[in-house]
Amino acid sequence: MRPNPERLLDEAIELLHRRGFAAGDGEVIDLLASHNALVDRSDERVRIRPALLREMLSNVPSGFNLHDRSGRKVRTLAGGADLEPGPPMQATTLPSTNPVAPERLPDLCRDQAEGGGFDILGEPACPGHLPGPLGDLYPFFWGMLTSRRPRLLRPRDPEVLDGLRSLMSVLRGSPQKALETPFVVVESIAAHSLVWPPAACRILIDGARRGLPVAVVTPPAPARATKDEAWVIEAAAMGIAGVTIHQLARGDAPVLWGVPFVQPMAPTPEARGAWRALIAVGDLIGMPTHVTLLSRSRSNADLWAAEAALAGVSLIAWGDATRDTSAAIEIARMCGAAAEPAEAAVALDASVTAGLTRVLRHEADRLGAGRIPLPEGVPE
Helical H runs in 173-250? Predict the structure, then answer.
């Protein structure tokens, strides 16, 4: 099965008009209603006017610059048929679900920073006892301290975006500078059955308003996916709905078109054709494209990452900085790029570290987390 991307885009827009989708957050409905986008909102679903969808897609930003911890531009992530964004950036995947002790985080982050082959680092493993957004913010904090590379975050709790904005404002020196020099990409993932879940809706809306680049990730493919075109249309529809929500929250906010790997299936011709058609929809819209590993199973991940590189995507999130360096280097070489070299952990300026620590301590106090390990030399 090799769906045509133009037809797939048209059918996805028609699906959102005819059947609609379930929005897990009331503000989504408010945003659509305020732009006269709603056809109907009965049966817990919202149906959207095709003209609004096409207007939003025609004005989606075609790219944005991603910066490292120091504020240096690392890469322009760009899409569109008239642009040549170059070899894809490669990112580590997100952590296992197994919690770690907080005191182990500095060493884990240092090991990750010293791994070569990847341009962007994923969030380190999460301490199990930390409440809500602090479970995302605390590993991210340690990752910032130990590496200059940009970061990828899949938030477990959308409330973490407030803490991220505060950390970035301290790192850059002002909220405006943080807005101008993005350092972290966050993922928001749609669900099966034409549903944008509550947490994912908040990430779309709040991420846009806080100036954080958001990868709008279509639903993961079910086992039957490669034999049924309906899932491809539904997945494209959910991506289009997510991009529309994001851009209604703040026009021109940086955004990527995200497609999950087909896991754990090997890249068969059917799976490859359907998956590449979804990626091609993002290209057709003119967005930078992002593929990501959602399953904790790593079966065939390197094969799919190579497929993504051949498809010309902007960002591939798939690897492990300590285990898959050789595969990441080979994929970079295949695309004609030099892999990101290993780096020694580089400490931040003491005053910046102190400011970041104050943000973290404030969040820990607000959430009732009690004492958490902090960098040596920073007053408790």
Answer: 175-180, 198-209, 229-249
SS3 (DSSP) at 226: helix
Where b means 16+ CB within 10 Å and e means fewer, 229-267 reads: bebbbbbbbbbbbbbbbbbbbbeebbbbbbbbbbbebeb
**202-221 pLDDT, tens per residue?**
999 999 999 999 999 999 87
DSSP state of 127: B
C-beta of residue 325 within 8 angstroms of C-beta of residue 117: yes
Distance CA 318, CA 297 (A): 11
- Residues in the chain predicted with pLDDT less than 50, given as ranges, are none
CATH code matching the domain that covers 57-334, chosen among 3.30.70.1400, 3.40.50.300, 3.40.50.150, 3.20.20.480: 3.20.20.480
The helix, strand and coil proportions of the chain, stated in percent and rounded to the nearest 5, come to 45, 15, 40
Is 351 within 8 Å of 81 (Cβ atoms)? no
